[in-house]
Specification:
4 copies of one chain form a homotetramer. Chain A has 5 helices and no strands. In chain A, about 40% of the residues are buried. In chain A, α2 packs antiparallel against α4. The first copy, chain A, has one domain: Helix Hairpins. Chain A is mainly α. Chains A, B, C, D: This is Nucleotide pyrophosphohydrolase.
């Protein structure tokens, strides 16, 4: 993970991209969570008729691999934009959640 | 964003958490995208009856703020676990997507 | 299918239920589609970690069967309320769609 | 609502359509709920950037009206196919749910 690819820098690029197109009025938290769920469903669509085994080989086909990677990017894009407008640090939120889960569900 | 919170480290903690509970057989790409979409919908549920204006103030209430942050963590957790099983680098995927979008949709 | 259970009658009961609680201002098409997608995801949640075979036996357990039936009712409730506010006849929409699909995708 | 458009008849047409294309092996409950949630999200996609007021006028544009009606048909198609494979009567499920809700949440 290079410095170039850190989360804060991606958030800044996404914010500049949206600002240059005057999209901020559309980027209410309510609209961004809807867009996030739509992108997550576009990922589901790729997998919906596959067996578990087929789903495990989905990256073997270059076209499908590209499509999957692209939808993952879209999900992450809306998640980071949502975090930006809400003032949530997504990595800190996840670290805190893993801490909580480790206490609540001790490994057997 | 401290070193402690980098994406690769969070992915490692999630993988260890799942392995310690023998959850890997459940973590097919197909199941993980379903779980991701379910968590995204739990975010939508918080916002579904709010006006755009109310949605912009959602972090003012500490309980709702906690719930939102928790669901964001869940979405990110499944997204990172999906990337892990597929061998996708989520930050590189998003950087490449922003590059493409900047070429395809030049700012006015 | 008895007369008592026809679609128009269920729509009327749902509309009266909402009106008695002054919920109409919340029932914009945008909010109703969000609620519909949230209920669909609650169905997905029941199945997300199941194998295809386990998913086929989901009605064998009375508690799960009740939960599935209840979520189906919720999906249908929001779908019918959406149709009501939009003036769409859902059965006619589906019949027209099947007609189109039969022309577009002739059986082999 | 004419006899021609009753729910049981639509379910029969959907079942025949799927059988003629040998799709039954794909129509596990798990896959059908995924497809249902994907179609619900395609409805959300139409509304995601609209204001509440714009969403209330969505049927004024014939192209959008057609798209909305088509997605409603898709949601209903997967819901009815799910009910078919699970042996659930969707109208009876909804009637029972409304009965329960009327008891649990008496009108003010």
């Amino acid at each position: 993970m290079t410095e170039h690819l850190d989360v804060a820098k991606l958030q800044r690029r996404l914010a500049e991209f949206a600002a240059a197109r005057d999209w901020q009025p559309y980027h209410t938290p309510k609209n961004l969570v809807a867009a996030l769920s739509v992108e997550a469903s576009e990922l589901v669509e790729i997998f919906q008729w596959l067996t578990p085994e087929e789903s495990a080989r989905v990256m073997d086909d270059p076209d499908t691999a590209h499509r999957v990677t692209d939808e993952i990017a879209d999900v992450l894009a809306y998640l980071l934009q949502l975090c930006e407008v809400l003032g949530v640090d997504p990595l800190a939120a996840l670290a805190a959640k893993i801490d909580r889960n480790e206490r609540r569900f001790p490994a057997p």
